[in-house]
Amino acid sequence: MGIFMRNYNKPGKGVDPLAPKSEGAMLFFEIFFRKFWKFIQINLLYCLALIPTFIIMLILSGAVSNAVLTTFNAQIASLVGLSAPDFNNADFNLMYITIDVCLRAFVTVMFTVFWGMGPATAGVHYIFRNYSREENSFIMSDFWDAVKDNFKQSAVVFLVDVVMMFVFFYAITFYSSQSNILKYAKYIVYCLFLFYTMVHLFLYPIMVRYKLTIGKLYRNAALFCMVSLPYSFLVIILLLALTVGLLYIMSKLAFTTAITVFVIFAVLLLYSLCGFIVSYNAERQIIRHLDENAVVEEKPTHSEK
Fold first, then answer.
1. Is 207 a member of any domain?
2. pTM surpassing 0.90?
3. Which of 13, 131, 272, 279 lies 20 to 30 angstroms, CA to CA, from 123?
């Protein structure tokens, strides 16, 4: 697949070479709890770096929000005791704006967690790659060096993702509105959407590891996704649990309390935890399925430069 292997099994600094080495989920939790405060630092840095693309997505996701709100106008009106939508009613307008903002934020958060947001995502995945190998990483310098090194490719991936978001949304909307046999085509779109999402589980981890063209980057990410399909599904389920599942649980609380708790969690830990799950799984699957005979140049770590 255009990938070769190096030995990543050497212990990191401060690890007893005679101690039994943890693997799998046990190693994941060991790294996570050992570096818990660093994960918070990474999350805060990531949130700051995301501000430009986050604003862009909040604006663009208005198209999705408007389509949903237009469909459910009558239900929104009933929430404030109206028999029909009335934009001259202050309560209706407040409810409409609140739902609009929440929908935009939800789409943006899900976009960030499952697809990533360009250069900033490449930066954090470089750090998480080092953590997955149990190697040291200097958060600020490694993050910004990785952002610069992968800026062009990650920006292209982000632009493609923005286009694909609208392609999938309008395709699902179109086929769902059909009354003939075409309405079943939406299930094909759902499958393509899921596969495209799972490809992102390897897209950024491979990007920060290897010198590949954009076409080969997508190709290898798709191949790794297919050969490790059960693990890809498992990662998707975990990410859904940390986003949609958590939101569902908190929906039992008061609205303002639920939003406050989720925002705090997102700012402090959500993105770094989800990103590490993705990177850790990608590292293990790449080692397991890589082609030892193929020759492709691996990017040097910043400590090797």
1. yes
2. no
3. 13
**Beta-carbon contacts of residue 84 (< 8 Å; ≥ 6 apart):** 74, 77
Q: Is 72 contained in some domain? A: no
pLDDT of residue 12: 46
SS3 content of the chain, % helix, strand, coil (to 5): 75, 0, 25
Number of domains making up the chain? 1
DSSP string over 156-183: HHHHHHHHHHHHHHHHHHHHHT--SGGG
Q: C-alpha angle with apex 55: 52 to 60, nearest 5 degrees?
A: 125
Q: Is residue 225 part of a domain?
A: yes
Asked whether the beta carbons of 65 and 104 are under 8 A apart, the reply is: yes
Residue 93 counted as domain residue: no
Per DSSP, 88 falls in state T
Where are the alpha helices (H) located in 85-228, listed in sequence order? Answer: 90-114, 119-132, 139-149, 151-176, 185-207, 214-227
Q: Which residue has the tokens 């499958």?
A: 191
**Which residues in the chain come in under a pLDDT of 50?**
1-12, 14-15, 18
* pLDDT on residue 19: 52
Q: What tokens does 90 get?
A: 């202050």
* Structural domain that includes position 253: 27-53+109-289
